[in-house]
Amino acid sequence: MNYLIGIDLGTSSTKTVLFDENGEVIASAGKEYPLYTPQNGWAEQKPEDWRDAALETITKVVKDSGVNKDDIKGLGISGQMHGLVMLDENGEVIRPSIIWCDQRTEKECEEITEKIGKERLIEITANPALTGFTASKILWVRNHEPENYKKCRHILLPKDYVRYILTGEFATEVSDASGMQLLDVPKREWSDEILEKLDIDKSLLAKVYESPEVTGTILPEIAEKTGLSTATVVVGGAGDNAAAAVGTGVVKDGTAFATIGTSGVVFAHSSNISIDPKGRVHTFCCAVPGAWHVMGVTQAAGYSLAWFLENMGASYTLEAKEKSCGVYDILNKEVMETPIGANRLVYLPYLNGERTPHLDANCRGVFFGLSSMHTRADLARAVMEGISYSLTDCKDILSEMGIQITDMMACGGGAKNGVQRQMMADMFDCEVNTVTATEGPALGVAILASVGAGLYGSVEEACQKLIHKDPEKKCDPVPENTKEYQKYHQVYKNLYPALKEQYNALAEL
After folding, report:
1. Per residue in 199-208, pLDDT tens?
2. Mind listing the pLDDT tens digit for each residue in 85-99?
3. 104, 156, 395, 425: which could join 475 in a potential S-S bond, CB 3.0 to 4.6 Å?
4. Residue 352 confidence (pLDDT)
């Protein structure tokens, strides 16, 4: 039997999973690490923590599994995107990594837009200048820490730093590199025009591979430490969402996934490059060679429900304790008994501003239509509907761009909630499925490793063999529900333009 390792380098922890060649989990291990906020709006992590977590968890799964090291044919890494890792001439970390959720680079985004032009920037990188992306972080270090910038010889993304530790190679791949705002996304290579206009030396950047390509093998000293073989290949891997797509089988046209974690994502595969000129959604190279994905992101999806339960759901928590059941058991039962539209109550989930479709940092959450008749069940249903409306907005933009979705997968925490899945099926007007596997990004990069190691001929072939839908959790749209939701969704869509100026006025107070 052949085996594969998938590493998922997240913001709170790294998880490493050993799979057999059929995608079955043999062993897994995780390790947490801190996030640092030196100032308001800043977010940093120590790359050394990622290194230590990867080495420790690899060692554990190899040891616990008892698998022969020579049978572990390939390893893939998935990672949180956009983080900036800077190394000196000796390959040592210069400063903590500025990670994806850091918001310090507003002025640098203005600098990028001014030097390149908004339209041209979107044409090349498929996205407007965003504070989360890597290019603005590079400029911030140059503008504020010139001594650190002067020492920099290598710029890597988080997962690619772990790759460097494992293989000694400076490499990245197209899906993660797409989020740096330095890649020509249509051409799948570094943009000389952007690098020249921003005065960034191309030699600082790693070589770009396709996601299933072999980028190196395990160093002898790492093999000795972890129990791996020096013959184990390490493939390009993928950014977290691109890896999750492979791990849920979203690798061909018509397929997409929606995830409800803290934020919400609607992610669709496309064989053709499709860029929104308004910059409302991200277009990135995907983990399937020669293909792309388009992704809408909402800021406070699952977070809206968590916020509601924490601040308004005390009675749910108390009742759950009294009945010795889960909070969601009670909440879902009440939501199911409440009519579509929550008795004419609409919730806008803009607790932390919004990304798609409005790209507005000033907009805020709203309960619209609140009256004395409304109960906790109405509020709960309105929040769940608001989350689904925000994801439907993302899907509608993809449809505008000519990307038709016929097969939607649900993943993340929201995928576990059957009530939320049914709402999505009704609003999306297409069936919503889940997969039997739960390892997501780790399985996705293990699949990429299986292709790089020659166990499968393509990503599509591997997914066909290893990814299976869960028939018991399939949700079909109910036509009458779809029609009813469309009425309330129109009210939902009308509210943002009606409130836009007042959001700005409130932010000025």
Report:
1. 999 999 999 9
2. 999 999 999 999 999
3. 425
4. 85
For residue 40 the two structure tokens come to 């308001």
Peptide bond into 357 cis (omega under 30): yes
3-state secondary structure of 407: strand
Residue 436 DSSP symbol: S
pLDDT for 201? 98
DSSP state of 459: H
Q: Is 407 a catalytic residue?
A: no
CA nearest neighbour of 35 among 18, 68, 13: 13
Amino acid present at 361: A
Helix (H) or strand (E) holding 350: none
Distance CA 490, CA 486 (A): 6
357, two tokens: 């479709």
Look up the pTM and report it: 0.90
Domain 302-395 in CATH 3.40.640.10? The answer is no
Q: Where are the domains of the chain?
A: 3-242, 302-395
Residue 187 CA to residue 183 CA, distance in Å, equals: 8
What single-letter amino acid sits at 396? D
One-letter-per-residue 3-state SS of 190-227: ECHHHHHHHCCCHHHECEEECCCCEEEECCHHHHHHHC
Three-state DSSP state, 361: coil
Class of domain 3-242: alpha beta
* Identical topology for domains 3-242 and 302-395: yes
pLDDT tens digit string along 334-391?
A: 999 999 999 999 999 999 889 899 988 889 999 999 999 999 999 999 999 999 999 9
pLDDT for the residue 134: 98
Separation of alpha carbons 279 and 358, rounded Å:
10
Of the listed 240, 378, 393, 407, which one is catalytic? 240
